[in-house]
Amino acid sequence: MNEVTEKLIIDDEPAGLFRVNRKAFTEREYLELEQRRVFETCWIYAGHESEVAKPGDYRARRVAGHPVILARGDDNVVRVLLNTCTHRGAQVCRQASGNARTFQCAYHAWTFNNCGALVGVPGDSAYSAAFKREELGLANPARTESYRGFVFINFNPAAESLTDYLAGATEYLDLVADQSEVGMRIVEGTQAYSIRANWKLLVENSYDGYHGLPTHQRYMQFLSETGGSARLDGARSKCVDLGNGHAVIEYESPWGRPIAKWAPSFGEERKAHFEQIRRRFDERFGPERARRICESSRNLGIFPNLVINDIMAITVRTFFPSAPDLMEVNAWAMAPREESPEDEALRLDNFLTFLGPGGFATPDDVEMLESCQRGFINREVGWSDISRGMHREIPRTDDELQMRAFWRRWNELITAPKIRPARKAA
Amino acid sequence: MSTADLLARAEVEDFLYKEANLLDDWRLEEWLELLTDDATYQVPPTDMPDGDPRTTLFIIADDMVRIRSRVKQLLGKSAWSENPPSRTRRMISNVRVVGHQGEGFAVSANFVVYRFRHELVDTYIGHYEHELVQRDGQFKIRKRKAVLDIEALRPQGKISFIL
Q1: pTM, full prediction
Q2: With contact defined as beta carbons under 8 Å apart, do A296 and A251 qualify?
Q3: Domains of chain B: total
Q4: Contact criterion met (CB below 8 Å) for A81 and A140
Q5: Is residue B54 less than 8 Å (CB to CB) from chain A?
Q6: 121-160 in B: which are within 8 Å (CB) of A?
Q7: What confidence tens digit (pLDDT) does each residue in A240-293 have?
Q8: Is A345 in Cβ contact with B55 (below 8 Å)?
Q9: Total CB pairs under 8 A between chain A and B
Q10: Which of B57, B70, B148 to mutate to test the interface with A (most CBs of A within 10 A)?
Q11: Model confidence at A424: pLDDT above 70
């Protein structure tokens, strides 16, 4: 498919109506278009610099479906290398993670250093003068850039810079990155799971303030049982379209936050310690920003498939469709590097109350998303409604502005792609 | 192997089968009675099976407060991922008593848990590393750790029942 011939969204601002064609969730042809027009033109999160902290550290993973190696070379530069031997294709990195000077292909023993350069070809006298090692290093995505430790790749060489792309989202990445004086890090351990639903349902769900009470009743009950309050304060909450399809909700949450909002479940004995952490934030940023960093929660969606939820802990979550009705999810916890072992343990414990495949909330989200996908089989109901709060002057966190921001950008890319000039035949 | 060892293993096996049966039957209140007051229930992440929950992001790392709450939620109405409840069937084998000190027994066993829901079958394969204690002639579980062999929860997606 090259041309989209049907309407995929209805965006009727004057009437206050927004609808999404459910074929966007179910049709393979749109998945293929997304691969080319979304995942190969946008900046895609590949990992965090802290995951390869020392020269030689590497992680093999799939990013937007591509097998890649996130590697810090001996020159201390973090790169993303495409995990395929330039000789005949085998994957040169066979371990999930480790530290290595070189990646040697197991098939014919071509050897690449940890910066990607081809440094060894057994029996290279068999090659002509036209065979040049320097042209046969491991390939990279067209672009790799990072913002405050978050590494992104782009397969479009003409893409705008990462910072321009992130637009208003940088303000919210800063609110996470500023939680450390020496740099944030990804904690060991990946929550690797899948959801039998279209990936865009997880985008919608990740910053959906409307579903909190009905879907997560049992989490709210758990909060009140453990001495927390299940009351949401609407006064400081907001929902912002950050440009380029990114959006965020920010609000005062009923749960405690390891940085640095004490809750009864953390224990009386920690109260003074939390106040001390908080005072340091006051010194660094002044009371207003300190309060925002420490006490507000944020669910941030970076177009297309990165979610950073800075809530009862910080989760970095990315996902990719393997079929219209199946996505692969990887989620990690993020923490300040200087955090004490006690604070880190508390953070991870607090993470698990809500988040992840065994938490008291995420499994119910998974259930709802899978339920939506099964519901879509009723093709007679062709549209989903995302109009909530469209008439409101100041959007609320339980409105659906954030989703509309995503869908508008998605629709723009899917229906009006910048066509790259066709290559001439040699 | 001594007769005492054989007997210990037979008793542990019986206990694990009984526990599996309670879980498969969703008799979770009775299951809670098999746990000590300081029991823990852990499922490490699939990429760090040897991790420590204080420094590694786990899938589940419950203390007794959370285990009790989990059971209450699962028996209530709003744990949507288990309402209506999944059917599960547990196969437990290769049971070994790998250590014994005082009242404590370190027990290892393999498991296959089938979960049936929405006419799909998900299979969870791994092994248990339990710590049992013998009190008044009865076993209780002090540490319950389910280590998955599957490389990711794909396509299982979630561990919303007790694994």
Answers
A1: 0.95
A2: yes
A3: 1
A4: yes
A5: yes
A6: 151-160
A7: 999 999 999 999 888 999 998 999 999 999 999 999 999 999 999 999 999 999
A8: yes
A9: 132
A10: B57
A11: no
Chosen for mutation from A218, A312, A316, A366 (greatest number of chain B CBs closer than 10 Å) is A218
- Rounded to the nearest angstrom, the minimum Cα separation between A195 and chain B is 6
B56 lies within 8 A of chain A by CB = yes
Segments of chain B with pLDDT less than 50: none
- C-alpha distances (whole Å) from B95 to each of A19, A25, A389, B17, B127 are 56, 46, 58, 10, 10
Instruction: Tell me the C-alpha distance between A100 and A58, whole Å.
Output: 7
ipTM above 0.90, yes or no: yes
Tokens 């893409």, residue? A159
Q: Which amino acid is at B98?
A: V
> Got the DSSP string for A348-405?
HHHHHHHSSTTSSSHHHHHHHHHHHHHHTT-TTS-EEE--TTTT-SS--TTSSHHHHH
d(Cα B39, Cα B131) in Å, to the nearest integer? 9
- Average per-residue pLDDT in chain A? 94
Put simply, the answer to whether B55 touches A188 (Cβ < 8 Å) is: yes
Give the distance from residue B27's alpha carbon to the nearest chain A alpha carbon, in angstroms.
20
Whole-number Cα distances in Å, B72 to A289, B67, B77, B87: 39, 9, 10, 18
Residue B33 lies in a domain: yes
Nearest CB among B44, B47, B61 relative to A192 is that of: B47
DSSP string, A310-347: ESSSEEEEEEEEEETTEEEEEEEEEEETT--HHHHHHH
| Domain CATH code at residue B68 | 3.10.450.50
pLDDT in tens, A320-360: 999 999 999 999 999 999 999 999 999 999 999 999 999 99
Chain A residue closest in CA terms to B78: A218
B54–chain A nearest CA distance, Å: 4
Are A347 and A258 within 8 A, CB to CB? Answer: yes
d(CA B110, CA B98): 13
Instruction: Report CB contact under 8 Å: B51, A357.
Output: no
Check: CB of residue B56 under 8 Å from CB of residue A188. yes
Backbone region of residue B93 per phi and psi (left: phi > 0; alpha: psi in -120 to 50; beta: other values): beta
Give the three-state DSSP class for A151.
Answer: strand
Residue A150: both structure tokens together = 């978050």
d(CA A403, CA A132): 49
Which residue ranges form the domains of chain A, and what is each CATH number?
Answer: 44-154 (2.102.10.10), 182-414 (3.90.380.10)
Mean pLDDT along residues A45-71: 97
Range of the domain at B11: 3-148
pLDDT at A167 over 60: yes
Whole-angstrom distance, CA of residue A313 vs CA of residue A333: 7
Q: Quick check: B46 and A190 CB within 8 A?
A: yes
